[in-house]
Structure formats: C-alpha cells, structure tokens
Design brief:
With 163 residues, this protein is an alpha+beta fold. It has four helices and four strands; from the N terminus they run ααβββααβ. About 3% of the residues have low confidence. Its main location: membrane.
C-alpha cells in the first residue's frame, strides 16, 4: 500500500486572529479620531468663549442667550395656571416678546399678566389639536398687539405644555 501525504493548509491560530483584530481596531480608532479632529476642531477655552460674548448677553452658565434686551427680545417668566374647564388641567407656557426698538420691561410685565388672565378663561376643548393651538397663538398675538399699540412685533412661543 502506498502512503499518501496529505498536506492540508493549517488554519491560522487563535492568537494570530486576535492580534489582527486588535491591530485593525487600533487603526480604525486612530483614523476616526484623526477625521474627527480635522472636521470639528476642539472647542475653545471657556475663558476665550466668555471673552468673545458680551457680559449682558450671557446666561448663568456663561453661554450666550438668544433672548436679551440688547437685541430687542424680552423673555417673560414662565406662566403656569389652570384652565377654565376642566379645572384640574394645567398649562405651562413660556413666551418671548420681540419689541420694535428698545424693549419696555414694564409693558412686558403687563402683557405677562394679561396672558395669565386670558389663559384662565380658556377651556381644554378650545386649544386641542393644531387648529386650537393656532387659534390660541392668534388670540394671544391679538391681545399683545392691542396692549402694546404695535410696539411688540412678534410673540414667540418657547414651550407649551398641558397637563
């Protein structure tokens, strides 16, 4: 009988496979880091960022605020009140007013109180759905226009939550 030498190719060892995966992972991670640094440079120092933003336009954390009196926008205090019906439903509303020219803080406070009084007369059925919300926005805009004699050009709804 003849003896046949069968030479089957050996599969790579487990150690070599793990080493290849580790090297490829490091290369992929390094490439991702490099692309990230090239596309989005690291953020500026907080000290540099604070120096670039005027002090009057910064919030508590030193970040710039959109609504400032310097750019004619006054953000009103959040309004939380119950609805007329059902009385157990509450509404929370945050509104900002855009003034034509220099903002009037006293007028903004009057408008705030007027919006609170109006919301107490609204029922849940009146403000349900997109059409009801649009009616609410239109009603508030109309009340603000009447109260401000045209000095407020825009009412911006920041949040609106019914609970």
């Amino acid at each position: 009988m003849e003896e046949i030498d069968s030479k089957q190719p050996k599969s790579p060892s487990l150690v070599m496979t793990i080493a290849a995966v580790a090297v490829l992972t490091l290369v992929a991670g390094g490439g991702g880091w490099l692309v990230g640094v090239l596309l989005a440079p690291p953020p500026a120092d907080k000290a540099e960022a604070a120096a670039e933003v005027p002090e009057s336009a910064t919030g508590e954390e030193g970040l710039p605020k959109i609504a400032t009196e310097a750019n004619g926008i006054v953000q009103l205090e959040p309004i939380t009140t119950n609805l007329a019906y059902p009385a157990e439903n509450w509404v929370r509303l945050e509104v900002a007013l855009q003034f034509k020219g220099v903002p009037d803080v006293a007028l903004a406070e009057e408008i705030h109180q007027d919006i609170v009084a109006y919301l107490k007369t609204v029922s849940l059925q009146q403000i349900q759905g997109p059409r009801g919300f649009q009616y609410l926005r239109d009603d508030i805009q109309e009340r603000v226009d009447l109260r401000s004699d045209g000095r407020v050009t825009n009412v911006m709804f920041r949040t609106f939550v019914i609970q």
